Structure formats: C-alpha cells, structure tokens
Amino acid sequence: MPELLKNRYNYESLQELALRVKAVYPSFREEDFVKAVINETWEALELKARMRQISVNLGRYLPDDYKQAIGILNKVVEGYPEGYNDFAFMYFPDFVEVYGQEERYWDLSMAALERFTTLSSSEFAVRPFIIKHEARMMRQMAVWAGHGNEHVRRLSSEGCRPQLPWGQALTSFKKDPSPVLGILERLKADPSPYVRKSVANNLNDISKTHPGLVIKTAKDWYGGNEYTDWIVKHGCRTLLKKGNRDVLDIFGFADAGCVKVTGFALEDECVVIGGNLAFSFTVVAKKAARIRLEYGIDYVKANGTLSRKIFQISEITLQENEKRSYTKKHSFAEVSTRNHYPGFHSVTLIVNGTAVGTLDFEVLPIA
C-alpha cells in the first residue's frame, strides 16, 4: 500500500524545508519553526490540517510583509530541479490562500499560484479566490488554460471542478457549470494526458448535477479528435455506469437484446470476508454489436441496507453468433476504502446498461 501523503509531512521533510528557507533567508529560525509545526496536536491532524499547520507557521517565521515573504518562497521553489513536481509541496500555494487574498495582493498571488502549481498543485488554493471573485478568477483560469506548462493548464481545469475531492465545493458551479465548460472547451484537445484526465474528471463532476448538459457536450465533442474522444468517454463514466441510454448510444453500445447470456452462475454461494467471489457466464451475439459488460455488487452496509457498486468487465465488438465466455473473481479482502459486513449480498450482470441476471450469495465473517 502506498504511503499516505500526510505521513510525508514529518520531522525529516520539515527540517529539509526549514533548511531550504534558511538558505535564502538567514534569519529564519528553523528549529522554532519545526517545533511549532510538530506540536502536541500534530499526530491527530489529517492531510489538509497538516498542510495548513505548515503554511500558517511559515507565515509566523517569515517576514510579516507578504511581498517579501512570497519573494523568499519563490527563491525556495526555484531551488528545486526544473520539472520536479510533488503534491507534498502544496503548502506553498496554501500559504497564498492563507495570507494573500487581499485585493492589493491579487497580481502577486496569481503569479505565485501559477509558479507554485508547477512544483505541486494550486488546485485547493484557487478555490477561495473563485468563491470571492468568480468572474475575475475565471478570466485568470482562461488565461492559464493557454499556458505553455501542463501543470498550469491542468490548474485551470482542476481548480474549478465543482466537486473536487477534499476541496471546497464550488456551489455556484454546481448550480450553473457553464463558466466551467468554457474553460474545458479550451482544453478538450490538450496534448497532455495530465490535463486531459483533469478535464474528464471535471466533466464527470458536472454529470452528477447536470447530466443533460454533459450529454449535449459529449455529443458535440465526440468523434472529432482522439484526445477529445478519450476525455468524453472518461468524463461520462458515471453516466455509463448508470446505464444512461443517450450516452451508451454515443459510444455505439446497442440495446442489451442484441446478445444472449447463458450459464450465469456462482462458483460458491458463500464467501468469507477476505476471500473471493467467483462467477462465470457466456454471451452470444444475436447480431454484430458493440458490447459493454459490467457487474454490480449489492453490498450490505453497517446498518443492514444495500449499496450497489458497479465494476467494468470488458468492452468488446462481437460478430453475429460470436461467443465469449468469462470467469470473474471479486475480492472481499478488507481495504481502506471499504468495510465488508456479513449478510446476504447479490451480484448482477449488466450488458449495455441493462441488468440481465442477479444471483444472491452470503458473506460470512472470518471464523
């Protein structure tokens, strides 16, 4: 399991930061800074709280003058190798969020966010600026969308995602995402996969509140460019999992009646937490068709209710009478993102957005 990002904020990394600051600002009290950050509250803090504790204490031990403090941090950032990027350094843009929101600092803060995002990401730090000065900030995002650096272009999309994970929700864009689509339009054929993934994730966010708008956008965009086609497909993933017929049609997935499903069966009707559920089935095409195969697991939650999670199996093109057989294993191992509970669950086979069969099974506690 990869190391949690919050754990990379530790004594060693903070000591390195302090020494880098002291190298360009000799008056910096590096030992006091580190002690102030790693205080009695430190162990209980999660990622963003740790990041904020670092940026607040940078403000305490750097000059009170914001312009001077940013000048020092600029020199620190310049000390890292060109092209180096690490999300652990998000305390640099967070410093701008904490100390640089006054009107008199606008140009200085915009330049700092642009510079700092190339080392980490300013995706969280831009959001309070959008909330307070939406039109002005979105003009800035449009400028960044044409920047020569992929990290800056990504910021123009990632920073205005209506529902960015761990970020402040942009309620205005949840109500009306049209300003966001203006940014995405500029990036829909971006050559950088890093940028395209952000554009797709932004579209997926919008699809949760304005599915019709995303469907219209997908129809307008799809088929013109391979980069754009990838964005559209990835951006419509939630709608595809919901079996939205309009979206399925965009990608050429026929009605589920174009195939016959046989032999859908479980290897065992019970699975112990930590084990695997195995099932198999065969599909036969009644006519040539493009097929999207998925399955849904109806998990038992702690309160005894069910919650469905969809998993993709394959996307294939079958010729008339062509047959494909599948055997799948689904893990019930304990993971950080899901707790498993004993009880009766079900697995549902889904073809082109339509459920074609459901089987029940029991999840047993570890003996």
TrEMBL record:
The lineage of its organism: Bacteria, Bacillati, Bacillota, Clostridia, Lachnospirales. Pfam families: DNA_alkylation. It comes from the Bacteria. Gene3D superfamilies: ARM repeat domains. This is DNA alkylation repair protein.
